Task: structure prediction
Amino acid sequence: MNNLRRLDINLLLTLDVLLSEHNVTRAAQRLHLSQPSVSVHLARLREIFGDPLLLPGPRGMRPTARADELREPLREALEALERAVAPASPFDPAQATHTWKVAASDYGESTILLPALGGLRTQAPGTRLAVLDLSPRQLVKQAEQGVIDLALHTSEDAPLELHRRALFTERYVLAGRAGHPKLQRKPSRAQFCELEHVLVSPEGGGFFGVTDKALAEVGLTRNVVLSVPHFLLLMSVLASTDLVAMLPSRLARGNPALQVVEPPLEVPGYEMAMLWAERSHRDPAHKWFREHLAASV
Result:
């Protein structure tokens, strides 16, 4: 380690060329240095290694035993260093073998990952996708440590420490089972409040959401009889009972099992975004993956 501190990359490059050429003049030409500069480098190398390294010979210089020992390890080290500092090569999805790790709720899975999956399998067939549970309080730590590459989350609640790209704006519709007798037309506010509602409570067990806040602002309350942690269960409940829900419109789109009408009051929607850490911000593979997701929604 002490010797390593005395070396710099220019000395190692000079030694590598000298061990290849066995001639100071030719080495200087390859290095675009003057012959005296290469001689100075060689003198320093001899001092550091405690060995003459190259000795005068009948046709140039001949390496010492120590120089022969250094040749291959030095070449391998310089090649590894060259790879490390080389510009990132263009990303080729067809040849990629990445495993992307995305944190998402079941809403993000259905509206963003599912539409992107077919194209991902076609364009990057050697890659894999791991979907992890979304844990908002852990997002920054997980992203910075590489536990996740990307998170799908609302812009409003996105941590400021992460990069963010908006994907779309979502709105709410009133949904129930197909043929629901009380959803044949837009209900009045009073009728809306009398319906039996189910809502998604991501934290679990909650019976108050953004719709209830909007109702409270006009002095109304609704009848929430069921709270579930995931949209998957909510969708099954809607299709098989007379319960209704304020549902993100993308989940109701094109679903023949659901009857959809406009709600009788305006409920604020939200913006969905993807979030990522600085560590992967410029990586060509991650940039391609982010662009693919954005183009799929």
